[in-house]
Design goal:
Chains A, B: This is Precorrin-8X methylmutase. The structure is a homodimer. Chain A is 43% helix and 10% strand. Chain A is α/β, with parallel strands linked by helices. The interface between A and B is large, with 53 and 52 residues.
Chain lengths: 211, 211
């Protein structure tokens, strides 16, 4: 007789047990309540207790990002894996979720700028940037380019930046630069770790308290 | 005077340096050449040397998946973050990339099955399953349900399964079950680690040798 696998099939029960496990195992004591739920969801997305050691919020970032999202801030993403992952029902203000990477102007702009398409795509954010929440989960060049755009005092200011590019070249450096410049309230995952899943988790946690 | 950040802006140079760093730091000796490039790209996506310790291929999986993709196998994904991340120009046979999670039938099917939407969505894969490459990067329930579908000898067989669901409830167990059942050539990341970025990296590496 065939033995079928048995397993937990209730989505909410899976979330509840996952989040309880994370809260049992992770070192969350240094986070405010606003930050803690974000760190927990990021650990959940990565499947990695210990990630919290690398998560850094500037003072008030979580509150600022929540307020902006609640007020309808657009969410500007550097990659489609980020924009696709954001759970639309968690966006109470039906916020726009924007990724400009596949805009037909981007390849030409990248060539002209001598930069990556990920960086060039941000030039198309300018008219949405004021008061937005920026979610960079892939490209260090995008985060570096954003910081250089914000060196210009006339560049519109986002309400908050989630800076979680991943990898081995520029990721650590771009995130350190973000926290040093701190043009607006920001959060990062220090070092090489980061990526779209972690970034999406941060947006989803800041958009809604629902677990 | 404003100091702009300077950083590597050449995409290919960033890849080259990243992959060289990974090959210097990671323990890749136990992989075949077919597997090594997959493990390297997965480490790259995760920003995590050490991930390779958890990567397991069944004998011949990498070859089987490459052959299937080269021959035009559809790629069946459990989440849009997976299907969106797959780099289309790497698919030499213009392979279909399919995610059925948002099909309007799924919520009703999930309710009837008493399972998650992620698991229910796989029932809509049946007519594409034969010879496909399956990429599960999110939901343990999807992987468990696939294994139960494949208990039926009349269920069509994929050519290969990439089983990398992530998290704290069922992820480890579903991946262990995949390698124990081994219905077709398969690969996993053991334990809690996994996720869409790592899964996409595996697909992209199996689709093209280009680094």
């Amino acid at each position: 007789m065939t033995e079928f696998h048995t397993y937990e099939t209730n989505g909410q029960a899976i979330y509840d047990e996952s989040f309880a496990t994370i809260r049992r195992e992770a070192n969350l004591g240094r986070f405010t309540k606003d930050e803690e739920v974000v760190a927990v969801r990021m650990i959940h997305a990565a499947g990695m207790v210990g990630l919290e050691e690398h998560v850094v919020f500037s003072d008030g970032m979580a509150k600022a990002a929540r307020a902006a999202l609640a007020a309808g801030a657009p969410i500007l993403c550097d990659a489609y894996m980020v924009s696709e992952g954001i759970t639309r029902p968690r966006l109470a203000a039906n916020n726009e979720v924007i990724c400009t990477l596949r805009d037909e102007r981007v390849p030409g702009m990248a060539k002209e700028m001598g930069n990556t398409r990920s960086a060039a795509a941000l030039e198309l954010w300018r008219d949405k940037l004021e008061g937005s929440v920026v979610a960079i989960g892939n490209a260090p060049t995008a985060l570096f380019h954003l910081l250089n755009m914000l060196k210009d005092p006339s560049c519109p200011r986002p309400a908050a930046i989630i800076g979680c590019p991943v990898g081995f070249v520029g990721a650590m450096e771009s995130k350190d630069a973000l926290m040093e410049d701190l043009p607006v309230p920001s959060m990062i995952v220090k070092g090489r770790l980061g990526g779209s899943a972690i970034t999406v988790a941060a947006v989803n946690a800041l958009a809604s308290w629902k677990e």
